[in-house]
Each structure stands twice: as C-alpha cells, then as structure tokens.
Automatic annotation (TrEMBL):
Protein name, per record: GH16 domain-containing protein
GO molecular function, one term: hydrolase activity, hydrolyzing O-glycosyl compounds
Gene3D superfamilies listed in its UniProt record: 2.60.120.200
Gene Ontology terms describing biological process: carbohydrate metabolic process
Species of origin: Lithohypha guttulata
C-alpha cells in the first residue's frame, strides 16, 4: 500500500535528481543479456517474457575517497523538504539515471506523520567483514519529531505489462540500544514498511511488503485495492499476511519475488511459492517501485522519534513485457533462443534453456509451446510441397 497520492508527486522537488523522458520505452542497450530472445521463470507458468534487466549493487568500486563504510548523515529537522544530494557517483551514472529516479521531496504532508523522501536515504554500503567486501544498496527511514525521512526509487519504465520481479534484500538487524522498540527477538525498529511493487495507481498495484512491526518471518502480499475506500473495510482475499516459507526471516538475505501475469499474481521467497491470487490483479501498464516508508498510519504504525530502519538490497532483477508500440526490433523477435532466469549458476546471468535458431540446433531443457508446433507445421508443409513436386 502506498500513502495516498504518493506516486504522482505534488512536490515540485519530486524527480529533481533525475529528469528523464517520461515516455521512455525499451532501449535495447539496457538488456544485459542481449543474446536471449525471451526469458522464462520457474513456477507453474514459465512464461515467456520479452525483456530482462538486472541491477547489481554487490561490487560497486570505491567512489574516490568514499569506500562506502560511512552512512550519509541522517536528515535533520530543518531539512523537511528533501532536496538532498545524491550520495554517490554510482547512483548518479547515466545508466542508473536512465532506469531509476531517486525520489526527493515531500511525499505526503497530510499523513499522521508527514513523509519526506530524501536522496540521502539511498546509498551504497560496503560490508568490510565480508570476504568479498560486498557492497549493497541501502534504503533508510528515519523518524524525526515532525516528519519521517523516507526512501524511494521508481523505475522510469512505466509501461511494464506483466513481469516477474525479484530483489535479494533484507531489513538489517540493528541492536543499537538507542533505537526504541528493538530487542533480540525483534532487532528492527517497528513502524516502517519495505515495499517492492508494481504501481500505476492505488487500484493498479501489486505488492510485496514487509512491515517492521510484524514478526520477522511475516510478509504481506497484496493486490490493490485491498480496502474499500467508501466503507474503510478490507477486501477479503486481496491482502495476505503470510509466514515466509522454509523457515526464513526478512532480517536475512532472501530473494523476494512477485510474478504478475494476466489474471494471476504469485509471490515467492527463494523460489518457493508462498501465495497466489486471482483477485484484483493489475491490468494496466505500470512502473516498479522500491521504497521504505512510515507515515504513522494504521498500516505502517509509528516509528519512535529517533528510530531508524535500514534495508540492504544486493540486486534487483526484472523480466517483463511492455505495453503498446515498441520502437525496437525486439518486439518482433520470435522466441527462438529462450533463457531461464531461475536456477542459474549465477544470479543475473540467464542461461539458455532452448535454442531453435538455425545456429543452435539442440533443444535443451525447455521449449515453447508456440515455436515447436510452428516448426512441425513447417516440416509438414515442406513434405506437402515436396509431394506436389514443387520443391
Ligand atoms: C509476453 O509477450 C509475448 C509476446 O506478445 C507473449 O507471447 C507472452 O505470452 C507474454 N508473456 C506473458 C507472461 O504474458
Ligand atoms: C574507509 O574510509 C574511511 C574514511 O576515509 C577510513 O577511515 C577507513 O579506514 C576506510 N576503511 C577501509 C576498510 O578502507
Ligand atoms: C535544492 O538544492 C539546490 C542545490 O543544492 C539549491 O540550489 C536549491 O536552492 C535547493 N532548494 C531548496 C528549496 O532548498
Ligand atoms: C557482512 O558480512 C558478515 C560476514 O560474512 C555477515 O555476517 C554479515 O551479516 C554481513 N552484513 C550484511 C549487512 O550483510
Ligand atoms: C540509527 O539510530 C541510532 C540511534 O540514534 C544511531 O546511532 C545510528 O547511527 C543510526 N543509524 C543510521 C544509519 O542513521
Ligand atoms: C521485542 O520487540 C517487539 C517489537 O517491538 C515486541 O513486539 C516484543 O514484545 C518484544 N519482545 C520482548 C521480549 O521484549
Ligand atoms: C529450505 O531450507 C533448507 C534448510 O535450511 C535448505 O537446505 C533448502 O535449500 C531451502 N530451500 C530453498 C528452496 O531455499
Ligand atoms: C502515530 O502517531 C501519531 C502522532 O502522535 C498519531 O496521530 C497516530 O495516531 C499514531 N498512529 C498509530 C497507528 O498509532
């Protein structure tokens, strides 16, 4: 659930950090596995999808003297309009800016606790204890007396129509005794919501949400609307409070996934199906949003003043279709070289599942129901022509 009127920002400061052509459609160069024609996923309906992206935050090189070991200073009370600088060159590269907009500015001034997005809450961290000195993207939410300083990145691509999206992420445990509401069994400040979702409007939205007031193994999966604004009642079946499968906890690294198909949504953790829904499945082209917010409303609850929550994201992966006319050749491409996104040896590197191009003759561990009958028909047709003496 997004706070009301959140996506279309009223603030003039919104999007100040990345002025992007809003009509952006698929630039073929963004596809980082150009060899594949189409992409399949694990689960009951492998797809296929036509496009693929992988945004990897695990090996960000030092940015001059910034080795990503020190978090940007928290926003202070007087910084109540956002407008902070982007925290690193990495998050301001042309390729990052082409795909994502870091939100910066007032999000909802009328919430119980007003919300202000800040670019300073989106930053890279390096884990110096990790043997690979891995980096990851951080989102941070921080509660000030007058407002909550929150974080959001939005995809510039707004014409996604059906997708399978994943992020490897965790809410970082923090036992700092100065943070109210933390304890050993719940080492995270309550009152924030981590969201990964497709979004067009408050009634065209499909969510993965982690509420930090929930036990650390509960996750919320919803297709909006999940409540009736005229009565305030919840819509039965639109939102589920699910225990993460396979004894997992959101304070650990896991792959959180949402599949949006025509008429059905499915949610997974580490490739294990958690729940599916046919109710309120979005039907309209959408964008992708990752955010961490708190507005003192019933959904998030309140963060105590002084509390902060940080989320780590190793990578985000999306395979998707787009709506409408597409200027690239890709839309006309047939699914001849099919790649799978799941169960690969290296996340972010789809592997060939089948190859029916003229160059590759072997069928591997998958085939489309579309292409194979066409080939059979072609052979039958050639046999027919041969029989008539045409060939
Ligand atoms: C994606 O688009 C292709 C081409 O239109 C279509 O064949 C395929 O079924 C779509 N995939 C999904 C999951 O809707
Ligand atoms: C990272 O940079 C900080 C500030 O320049 C420095 O104090 C620290 O030693 C560096 N840490 C590592 C692991 O390089
Ligand atoms: C926002 O930041 C820019 C660059 O630092 C500055 O020029 C501008 O005055 C700031 N606007 C507000 C409303 O603080
Ligand atoms: C950093 O690495 C250490 C050692 O591998 C691990 O225990 C810790 O959970 C990592 N921290 C994060 C934020 O992933
Ligand atoms: C979170 O809050 C604690 C307690 O005030 C503070 O020590 C810590 O530096 C904060 N962390 C971040 C990332 O702002
Ligand atoms: C730990 O914190 C959670 C969330 O604030 C709370 O629900 C729980 O009762 C606390 N447990 C203990 C043992 O204090
Ligand atoms: C489920 O948990 C078990 C035990 O921790 C682990 O061995 C297995 O790989 C997990 N399955 C998945 C799909 O993550
Ligand atoms: C959160 O705190 C605000 C301000 O104190 C209050 O108006 C609101 O009702 C609280 N929200 C919840 C869910 O208790």
């Amino acid at each position: 659930m997004k706070a009301a009127s959140s996506f279309v920002k009223l603030s003039l400061l919104a999007n100040i950090v990345a002025a992007i052509d809003p009509g952006l459609t698929e630039p073929e160069s963004h596809d980082n596995s150009a060899g594949c024609d189409c992409y399949m996923v694990s689960g009951p309906d492998p797809g296929y999808f036509q496009y693929y992206r992988f945004w990897d935050f695990r090996a960000v090189p030092n940015d001059g003297n910034n080795n990503y070991t020190i978090a940007p200073p928290p926003v202070i009370s007087s910084e109540n309009v956002g407008n902070q600088s982007i925290t690193s060159a990495f998050l301001n590269t042309d390729s990052f800016n082409a795909d994502w907009s870091i939100q910066n500015g007032v999000e909802d001034s009328t919430a119980n606790v007003p919300t202000v997005n800040s670019a300073s809450n989106v930053y890279i961290s390096r884990n110096t204890s990790d043997p690979n000195r891995m980096t990851y993207l951080n989102l941070r939410a921080y509660r000030l007396p007058e407002f909550a300083s929150i974080a959001e990145i939005d995809s510039n691509q707004e014409n996604i129509l059906h997708s399978s999206i994943r992020a490897r992420m965790r809410v970082l445990p923090n036992l700092n005794p100065l943070i109210p509401g933390n304890n050993a069994s719940h080492p995270v400040a309550p009152g924030a919501c981590l969201g990964l979702f497709t979004y067009r409007s408050d009634t065209q939205e499909s969510d993965i949400e982690i509420l930090t007031q929930d036990p650390t193994n509960h996750v919320r999966y919803s297709n909006q609307p999940d409540f009736d604004p005229s009565t305030g009642n919840t819509v039965p079946g639109a939102s589920s409070d699910v225990i993460m499968p396979n004894n997992t906890f959101w304070t650990e690294w896991h792959d959180h996934r949402i599949d949006w198909y025509d008429g059905i949504s499915r949610w997974y953790v580490d490739g294990v199906l958690a729940v599916e829904k046919a109710l309120n499945v979005p039907t309209m082209p959408s964008a992708l949003v990752l955010n961490l917010w708190s507005d003192g409303g019933e959904w998030t609850g309140n963060m105590s003043v002084g509390a902060n929550v940080t989320v780590g994201v190793q990578w985000i992966e999306s395979t998707f279709n787009v709506s409408g006319a597409n200027p690239t050749k890709r839309a006309e491409k047939k699914c001849n070289l099919g790649c799978r996104v799941d169960d690969v040896s290296n996340a972010g590197h789809p592997q060939v599942a089948f190859d029916v191009t003229s160059a590759g003759s072997t069928m591997r561990d998958g085939r489309t129901t579309v292409e194979w009958p066409l080939q059979v028909l072609l052979v039958l047709w050639l046999v027919y022509l041969f029989g008539k003496g045409v060939v």
